[in-house]
């Protein structure tokens, strides 16, 4: 491939050099012809002859024929001192000049410059001719230069081009090898680290070594490694927590079942107490399994989102009323609901979010057992807040509480919940595209919230009026 390119360059150079030489000879001869009749004309002709290697002959041209005995100037680029009117023109030049005259008569062109092949020396010449006038006398200007001079120059240029090409090729090969080494070295390192990561070692670090593209790749791999490490930690926590949550009720169920078996004649009140504990722990296991199934369906997208327009104010009031039974246990609910706030969402799923939010507050509120439930219009959005007075959540743990089974520090524990409620909330609200989050102050409590864009209806327009 390189040889073909180089050959093409040489051919192009040959063609372009010959064309350039023809144009140069024609241009210089035109300049000389324009000065015909000047006092320093012969001096200018001799100067051009020496400088460009051109032989110039000027004849008188009476009656449409060349008078070879009337040579005005005959210069030789190699022996400029021979330039005088006494030099004779040999048969070779007479033949060339006659050919030019014939070409001039046939084409009607009084001036031409082109490459001609001669039979005398089996060589090519660049030949220029022009019909000049001075007063009433006509003269014929003939100029020629062997093309071999151009070809000699072309050979030198080709040799130089070959040298430059060879050096360039060597430099390209060396540069390619250096670039390949610089790029491949960090890639090999990344490949080795990736192999370690594929075997479960997520402590690896990918270094791009300053190459921009490799740095971007390394950054992406480092992010993947950190995410996989978090996933592994979460998976271990899930297994440990699920095992614990299932093991505890199973142990109790087994223990009380054995008591019933060993003491069949126990008092009725003791038997009922043990049976109620078995039922309670069974319900707890059932609730845990159901929550896990719900979350799995939510995350897999099996449960579609069926949006409808409904009165969120009425839904919040309904859910809050259902928690009123907790007041018999000492809980105090402060409820503030702005009426007729309509939204578009999946109503059953939003109801599930409300239940999980309020249940979370009931589980983790402070000793005063106070829970505040609020729904209001803020910037044309329905904002729901449920506030507890618990121990609060540390700032570095607020993003993690949405993960399933996440166990925060001792300042915030999940109590007797399944550990899946907030994960379900996050999945539902994320799929809807709604804003949600938590604001918390350690030692004072937490405020869980979400916002849903309002839908204008006739009812809320009347309420506004």
Describe this structure in words.
It is built from ten helices and twelve strands. The chain is 53% helix and 19% strand. The chain starts with a helix and ends with a helix. The chain is of the alpha+beta class. A hairpin with a 6-residue loop joins strand 1 (55-60) and strand 2 (67-74). It has three domains: 2-153, Beta-Lactamase; 212-300, Helix Hairpins, CATH 1.10.287; 308-464, Histidine kinase-like ATPase, C-terminal domain (Heat Shock Protein 90). The protein has helices at 2-34, 41-52, 91-107, 147-198, 212-262, 268-300, 312-322, 347-364, 421-432, 458-464, and strands spanning 55-60, 67-74, 111-117, 124-134, 137-146, 308-311, 332-337, 342-345, 370-378, 381-388, 435-441, 445-453. The strands form three sheets. A five-stranded antiparallel sheet has the order 2-1-5-4-3, sandwiched between helices. A five-stranded mixed sheet has the order 7-9-10-12-11, covered by helices on one side.
Order of helices and strands: HHEEHEEEHHHEHEEHEEHEEH
Could you tell me how far the N terminus lies from the C terminus, measured between alpha carbons in angstroms? Answer: 84 Å
> Which topology of the largest domain does CATH recognise?
Heat Shock Protein 90
- Mean pLDDT score, rounded? 76
Q: Tell me the number of helical segments per DSSP (H or I, 4 or more residues long).
A: 10
Helix share of residues?
40-55%
**Can you tell me the overall shape?**
elongated
* Proportion in β-strands: 15-25%
Fourth-tier CATH superfamily name of the largest domain: Histidine kinase-like ATPase, C-terminal domain
The CATH architecture assignment of the largest domain turns out to be: 2-Layer Sandwich
Strand order of the largest sheet: 2-1-5-4-3
Uncertain parts: 78-88, 410-415
Strand tally: 12
CA-based gyration radius: 51 Å
Look at the helices and sheets and give the structural class: alpha+beta
């Amino acid at each position: 491939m390189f040889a073909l390119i180089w050959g093409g360059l040489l051919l192009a150079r040959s063609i372009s050099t010959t064309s350039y030489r023809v144009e140069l000879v024609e241009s210089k001869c035109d300049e000389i012809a324009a000065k015909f009749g000047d006092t320093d004309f012969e001096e200018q002709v001799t100067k051009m002859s020496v400088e460009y290697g051109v032989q110039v002959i000027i004849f008188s041209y009476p009656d449409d024929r060349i008078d070879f005995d009337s040579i005005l100037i005959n210069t030789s680029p190699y022996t400029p001192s021979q330039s005088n009117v006494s030099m004779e023109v040999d048969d070779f030049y007479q033949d060339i000049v006659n050919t030019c005259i014939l070409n001039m008569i046939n084409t009607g062109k009084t001036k031409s410059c082109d490459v001609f092949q001669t039979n005398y020396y089996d060589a090519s010449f660049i030949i220029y001719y022009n019909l000049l006038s001075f007063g009433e006398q006509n003269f014929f200007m003939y100029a020629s230069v062997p093309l071999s001079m151009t070809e000699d120059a072309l050979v030198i240029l080709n040799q130089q081009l070959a040298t430059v090409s060879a050096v360039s090729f060597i430099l390209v090969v060396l540069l390619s090898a250096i670039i390949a080494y610089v790029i491949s070295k960090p890639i090999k390192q990344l490949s080795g680290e990736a192999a370690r990561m594929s075997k479960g070692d997520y402590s690896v670090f990918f270094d791009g070594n300053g190459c921009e593209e490799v740095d971007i790749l390394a950054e992406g791999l480092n992010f993947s490694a950190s995410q996989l490490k978090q996933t592994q930690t979460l998976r271990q926590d899930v297994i440990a927590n699920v095992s614990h949550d299932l093991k505890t009720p199973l142990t109790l169920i087994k223990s009380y079942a054995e008591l019933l078996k060993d003491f069949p004649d126990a008092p009725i009140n003791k038997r009922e107490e043990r049976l109620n504990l078995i039922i309670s722990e069974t319900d707890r296991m059932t609730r845990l399994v159901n929550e896990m199934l719900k979350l799995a369906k939510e995350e897999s997208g099996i449960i579609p989102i069926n949006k409808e327009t409904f009165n969120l104010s009425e839904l919040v009031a309904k859910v809050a009323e259902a928690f009123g039974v907790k007041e018999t246990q000492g809980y105090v609910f402060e409820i503030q609901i702005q009426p007729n706030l309509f939204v578009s969402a999946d109503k059953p799923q939003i109801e599930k979010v409300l239940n999980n939010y309020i249940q979370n507050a009931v589980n983790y509120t402070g000793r005063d057992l106070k829970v505040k439930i609020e729904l209001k219009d803020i910037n044309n959005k329905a904002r729901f807040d449920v506030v507890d007075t618990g121990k609060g959540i540390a700032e570095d743990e607020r993003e993690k509480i949405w993960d399933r089974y996440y166990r925060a520090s001792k300042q915030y524990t999940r109590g007797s919940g399944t550990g899946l409620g907030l994960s379900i909330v996050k999945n539902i609200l994320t799929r809807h595209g709604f804003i949600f989050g938590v604001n918390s102050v350690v030692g004072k409590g937490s405020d869980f919230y979400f916002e849903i864009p309002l839908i204008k209806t006739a009812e809320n327009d009347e309420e506004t009026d």
